[in-house]
């Protein structure tokens, strides 16, 4: 009987693991192909507890983040929300199979998960529509369409730094691999420091580095990013 129970338990555990899915989301488009560089594709997905949302930083040029927000304030980092940190991708992209990846595991599906890109250069990405949702309602007031509408009207996007563990989802590491030879992998501030999950999965924002270093890094990356965009004719 004990052996049978053990076998059944292992089988059920294996079934649960097998049912977990990985959902791929591309961060930014490729300008040289005429794609919108300020987008998540897809921008709305459905996921279950244990599923992994795999964010691929494949857009070029790009300098983006995946930052948790709320429906009411779509372009403001959510207190205790997750944040990938900014990842810079040069104009010509990266070698094959080397795009930075950020895996976000769903830990709670009782409420929708809203996220946006907090970059402000060359204009706020959030207000141009670079927002996304996990398990957004399809009817009522809090639909994804209304979330986008709220983002378009946001007059003061924020850039606070979050942590790896947020409300309803968490990550165990910052995006990677990162090519340090680029010299500008994160704009503005360092990536968030890993933290342990506790309680419902929320976490207080984690900040590292000094304000002067953050401002210097932001100016440097802004120059690189604007130059890359201008080079592909997006300002023409």
TrEMBL record:
Transmembrane segments: none annotated. Keywords: Signal. Residues 1-18 form the signal peptide. It comes from the Eukaryota. InterPro entries: Cupredoxin (IPR008972), Ser-rich/MCO-related (IPR052953). Residues 187-213 have a biased composition (Low complexity). This is Extracellular serine-rich protein. It comes from Moniliophthora roreri (strain MCA 2997).
């Amino acid at each position: 009987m004990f052996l049978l129970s053990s076998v059944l338990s292992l089988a059920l555990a294996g079934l649960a693991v097998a049912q977990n899915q990985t959902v791929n989301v591309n961060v930014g488009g490729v300008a040289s192909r005429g794609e919108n560089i300020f987008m998540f594709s897809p921008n709305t997905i459905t996921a279950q507890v244990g599923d992994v949302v795999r964010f691929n930083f494949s857009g070029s040029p790009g300098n983006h983040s995946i930052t948790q927000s709320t429906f009411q304030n779509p372009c403001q980092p959510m207190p205790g929300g997750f944040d990938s940190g900014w990842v810079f991708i040069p104009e010509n992209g990266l070698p094959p199979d080397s795009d930075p990846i950020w895996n976000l595991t769903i830990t709670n599906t009782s409420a929708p998960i809203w996220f946006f890109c907090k970059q402000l250069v060359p204009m706020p990405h959030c207000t141009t529509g670079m927002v996304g949702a996990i398990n957004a309602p399809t009817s009522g007031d809090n639909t994804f369409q209304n979330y986008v509408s709220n983002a378009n009207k946001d007059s003061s996007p924020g850039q606070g730094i979050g942590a790896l563990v947020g409300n309803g989802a968490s990550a165990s590491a910052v995006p990677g691999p990162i090519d340090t030879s680029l010299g500008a992998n994160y704009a503005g501030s360092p990536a968030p420091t890993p933290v342990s999950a506790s309680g419902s999965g929320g976490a207080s924002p984690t900040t590292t580095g000094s304000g002067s270093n953050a401002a210097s890094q932001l100016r440097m990356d802004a120059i690189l990013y604007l130059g890359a965009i201008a080079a592909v004719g997006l300002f023409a």
